[in-house]
Amino acid sequence: MSFATTLRSYFSLAFRWQRGRQGTGYDKMLLLTARWPLPFDSYLIRYPEGSEIPPHTDPVQAGRHYRLNVVLKSPRSGGEFVCATPIFATRRIKLFRPDACEHSVTRVVGGSRYVFSLGWVLPGRSDAGERPPP
């Protein structure tokens, strides 16, 4: 794929709200992405009232997938990120392995939730299903 084609593809998707792939009512806006030197993507994610994400994993073809989510705005109730084995977690910051750890978001009630999400894939063997290192 040529650089011009890649750039056109990026600008056709960037900074536009798109429906989330889980089909559960959240929206995502691509901010920045690259394939080199380290494949990554960054999104602004909007969870309107009533949206939720059921438990799932996000498999990758090769390597180890990491994601850092920063909650920018919380709803009055709900919208909680659930992950049994995060690498690091505070009230607003979550670092986890979406390919190795089942995760979800509870139903948003009373307002909306906004999250900045940065994801990257490290090369090497995939160890999905194994607990991430502490």
Automatic annotation (TrEMBL):
It comes from the Bacteria. InterPro entries: Oxoglu/Fe-dep_dioxygenase_dom. Residues 35-123 form the Fe2OG dioxygenase domain. This is 2OG-Fe(II) oxygenase. It comes from Variovorax guangxiensis. The lineage of its organism: Bacteria, Pseudomonadati, Pseudomonadota, Betaproteobacteria, Burkholderiales.
